[in-house]
Design goal:
- The chain is mostly helical.
- 57% of the residues lie in helices and 1% in strands.
- The protein is extended and about 105 Å long.
- About 3% of the residues have low confidence.
Length: 269
């Protein structure tokens, strides 16, 4: 064992130990992130699909984003590296192509209505610089999801902007958090991955894929819940309900005051 002791005391032994630990950490990180990425990766795009996406980009997007998706200063950002998930979200919700420059791009009727063409456009952008891919059907499946945990995660990360029921709400500088009612599970997952507009992005290390499915399960479940109190009042929470109750009580008090005044006037006459 003396030869081990001699080598351990060698000046380079410390550097070798540090390098070994770094390699092990890097390998472990690659295994963890690689398993998440492989589960969400779509079918590999072929050259024909990318070529079709290139043609669609030139026809529909290059005016604002540049001929090679490099972006145009003051008009539209570069799309290199945004990933297929961002393109699929923006185009499948009708936010892109944008009608006009503004603080928020609202959902509107689709400009490209064929899902295959949207995926081709997304594949072309993905080929330019990577980024989050379109999640697979398995990634957005809510089978076996934990609704209770999904509610907790939604309240902690999403309700401040989207409201507790996903009804949306106003933000600053002309921006707003849209309602989640018309969003599909894939679009909700893509929004969490890419962070469109004022929304922050939540990668798979911040909110794991399973937790994303839990959130999706809660959002989709709450849509079908009945309104035991009668009118939903927009389902935007107790503030609206309290305001309606306050205005109703105020109106009642005004009418009561008018009635009492009128009755007192007749009695005085």
């Amino acid at each position: 064992m003396s030869w081990i002791t001699a080598r351990r005391r060698h000046p380079a032994a410390g550097y070798i130990a540090v390098a070994f630990v770094l390699v092990m950490i890097g390998t472990a990180y690659a295994v963890i992130t690689g398993s998440n990425a492989s589960a969400s990766s779509p079918t590999t795009a072929n050259s024909a699909q990318i070529a079709e996406g290139r043609n669609l980009f030139v026809e529909n997007c290059s005016t604002c984003h540049g001929l090679f998706a490099e972006g145009v200063t003051g008009q539209a950002p570069s799309l290199i590296g945004v990933g297929a998930a961002a393109v699929d979200f923006q185009v499948s919700t009708g936010r892109m192509p944008a009608a006009e420059l503004g603080g928020e791009n609202p959902r509107k009727p689709l400009h490209i209505t064929n899902p295959a063409e949207i995926h081709a456009l997304a594949a072309y952008i993905q080929s330019l610089g990577g980024g989050p891919p379109i999640p697979s059907a398995a990634m957005v499946s809510t089978a076996g999801a934990n609704l209770g945990l999904g509610q907790q995660l939604f309240v902690a990360n999403c309700a401040a902007c989207h409201n507790f029921e996903g009804a949306g709400g106003a933000l600053t500088d002309g921006k707003f958090a849209p309602a989640l009612v018309p969003s599909t599970p894939t679009q909700i997952y893509e929004a969490m991955l890419t962070g469109p507009e004022a929304m922050p992005s939540f990668n798979d290390l911040t909110i794991t894929p399973q937790e994303k499915r839990d959130i999706i399960a809660y959002v989709t479940q709450v849509r079908s819940e009945p309104n035991p109190g009668g009118f939903s009042l927009g389902r935007v929470g107790p503030v609206t309900e309290g305001l309606v109750a306050f205005l109703g009580l105020l109106l009642f008090m005004v009418l009561a005051a008018l009635w009492i005044t009128a009755k007192h006037g007749k009695a005085h006459e």
